[in-house]
Design a protein that fits this description.
- This protein is an alpha/beta fold.
- The protein has a single domain, classed as 2-Layer Sandwich (Nucleotidyltransferase, domain 5).
- It has 8 helices and 6 strands.
- A 6-stranded mixed sheet has the order 3-2-1-4-5-6.
- Strand 2 and strand 3 form a beta hairpin.
- Helix 3 packs across helix 4 and helix 3 packs across helix 6.
- The longest helix has 25 residues.
- The radius of gyration is 18 Å and the shape is flat.
Length: 240
């Protein structure tokens, strides 16, 4: 999937590949019409971006987004030079019992991908000498990634999901092999900084088509990429 704006639609439609119904085919055709109308839109990369050759990203989760299984959706996007280089929008493997747990699981998955990309970039001669910031809008998730708080509500989380905490610990100890830090997004900026892979698009442009399942159009994504994250004083706070 080479279109991040279609990641969520692709994930949803793929669940009905074996036995599609009329409604599923209608939605699939709507997605194809969206592709036809956005042929001239593309992802752009520029060295004049906020962080040249530095990896950073967003992560988010939609609690119980799957109405059939009540599983949550993970959405993350990792950026470099003003454009996305890796993204995922898919249903999680287990049912989460709280928003913070769903966000914590999503952050762990994003941390694994970020660690992989750091090693890949190193092989290509772009070693990441700074912490890879992953922006998260759930303060409980950020707190759990830094120290074992809320134990009463988090003890049931699978041990392997604590991978993100190990990455943050490595960052605090300046171990660049796992230099990844969670950063909190202010609540008033939440609607503007949510990844396009798990939340609905607020696009109201005349003549602007959204994907078949109501997710964000590529133009909205590109505008968000240019604006966010904006650094200190513009909606984000570095944690740790």
């Amino acid at each position: 999937m080479t279109r991040p704006d279609l990641a969520w639609s692709y994930s949803e439609l793929s669940k009905y590949v074996q036995f599609p119904g009329i409604a599923h085919m209608d939605v699939a055709e709507h997605v194809l019409r969206y592709l036809r109308d956005t042929l001239n839109e593309s992802i752009t990369y520029t060295r004049g971006s906020r962080k040249p050759n530095e990896l950073w990203g967003w992560v988010d989760a939609d609690l119980a987004g799957d109405t059939d299984t009540r599983r949550s959706h993970t959405g993350y996007i990792l950026m470099m030079n003003g454009g996305p280089i890796s993204w995922k929008g898919r249903r999680q493997d287990n049912v989460s019992l709280s928003t913070s747990e769903a966000e914590f699981v999503a952050a762990s998955q994003a941390g694994q991908e970020a660690l992989y990309l750091r090693e890949t970039l190193k092989d290509f001669g772009y070693q990441q000498n700074t912490i890879t910031e992953i922006y998260e809008d759930n303060l409980a998730c950020v707190a759990m990634s830094e120290n074992p708080v809320r134990r009463k509500f988090s003890r049931h989380i699978d041990i392997r999901r604590y991978f993100v905490r190990e990455l943050v610990k490595a960052a605090e100890g300046h171990d660049l092999s796992g230099d990844i830090a969670a950063a909190a997004c202010r609540s008033q900026q939440q609607n503007r900084c949510q990844p396009t892979l798990s939340k609905r698009c607020g696009c109201r442009r005349k003549g602007r088509n959204k994907t078949g399942l109501g997710r964000e159009c590529l133009t909205c994504m590109q505008e968000h990429v240019r604006r966010l994250p904006c650094g200190q004083g513009q909606g984000y706070a570095r944690i740790g």
